[in-house]
TrEMBL record:
This is Acetaldehyde dehydrogenase. Keywords: Aromatic hydrocarbons catabolism, NAD, Oxidoreductase. Transmembrane segments: none annotated. Residues 5-118 form the Semialdehyde dehydrogenase NAD-binding domain. It comes from the Bacteria. The active site is at C126. InterPro entries: Acetaldehyde_dehydrogenase, Acetylaldehyde_DH_C, NAD(P)-bd_dom_sf, Semialdehyde_DH_NAD-bd. One of its GO terms (molecular function) is acetaldehyde dehydrogenase (acetylating) activity. The keyword NAD applies. Pfam families: AcetDehyd-dimer, Semialdhyde_dh. Its EC number is 1.2.1.10. The keyword NADP does not apply. It is an enzyme of class 1 (oxidoreductase).
Length: 294
């Protein structure tokens, strides 16, 4: 199958981690990395790897739009508002890793198939990528009346952007637990842990299910199936122990360890975002091929 050309907009840590992950894809061809600082590590690495390095931002890329059909935006929410309009006008598919939330939220194993005809989709949050699949797995067996998640990440893995958008994280993830996970009411909490050495990302999921549909075996199987599906594209995603049942409350403990492509292994919160973004792009690429061959 012919590879689909992709570009990365943003040459910071997230963009550079994407640069390395895309090299392993059997359907994506990374042709271009776009930034505004020619001395950034990301652009210099791209140049050394033979990838086109553009240091004049999105406008520089749009002068040569044939370079890519799919663009990852790993810049900022404010910048993405501008980028989204220009990329849409150029007919590009945009996968947004910023908090801008212009397009629909996607979580690959849950709802990506519903949005493959969109031109702009959003990766929601790291906590959402880790926990919404579990809430959905429970909900498909027993209706979830309330879902609460607590995401704990290393303080070192939270950059200025993350810290500036903590309130947005909780609102967006809470909404995702409801709209995508299926919970009637959702709540999200994030903790930045300053411990040294840095801790791995840990997430706890609490779900209150319908008391008339507490089938422990069926819920456990659904959760285990979902964990395996997420692990297929996030190798460091694990469930710690088995789900705990207390009457109609289900508790699940998760851990996300980064694969260490560019970011440290403790940055599982960032790794799950870049891994999910690649998964989304691969699905779009297959969808594009399917449309061409029809």
């Amino acid at each position: 199958m012919q590879k689909v050309k992709v570009a990365i907009l943003g040459s910071g840590n997230i963009g550079t981690d994407l640069l390395m992950k895309i090299q392993r894809s059997d359907i994506l061809e990374l042709t271009t990395m776009i930034g505004i600082d020619p001395l950034s590590d990301g652009l210099q690495r791209a140049h050394e790897m033979g990838v086109e390095a553009i240091d004049t931002g999105v406008d520089g890329f749009l002068e040569r739009p044939e370079l890519a059909d799919i663009v990852f935006d790993a810049t900022s929410a404010k910048a993405h508002v501008v980028h989204a309009k220009k990329l849409k006008a150029a007919g590009k598919i945009t996968i947004d890793l910023t908090p801008a939330a212009i397009g629909p939220f996607v979580v690959p194993p849950v709802n990506l198939g519903e949005h493959l005809d969109e031109c702009n989709v959003n990766l929601i949050t790291c906590g959402g990528q880790a926990t919404i699949p579990i809430v959905h797995a429970i909900h498909r067996v027993s209706p979830v009346a309330y879902a609460e998640i607590v995401a704990t990440i290393s303080s070192r893995s939270a950059g200025p952007g993350t810290r500036a958008n903590i309130d947005e994280f909780t609102r967006t993830t809470s909404r995702g637990l409801e709209l995508i996970g299926g919970a009637k009411k959702g709540k999200a909490i994030i903790i930045l842990n300053p411990a040294e050495p840095p801790i791995l990302m840990r997430d706890t999921v609490y779900a209150l299910v319908d008391e008339n549909f507490v089938n422990e075996d069926a819920i456990t199987k659904s959760i285990c199936d979902m964990v395996a599906e997420v692990q297929s594209y996030v190798p460091g995603y694990k469930m710690k122990g088995k789900p705990i049942f207390e009457r109609n409350k289900v508790t699940v403990f998760l851990q996300v360890e980064g694969i260490g492509d560019y970011l440290p292994a403790y940055s599982g919160n960032l790794d799950i975002m870049t891994a999910s973004a690649v998964k989304v792009a691969e699905q779009f690429a297959r969808h594009l091929h399917a449309r061409i061959t029809v």
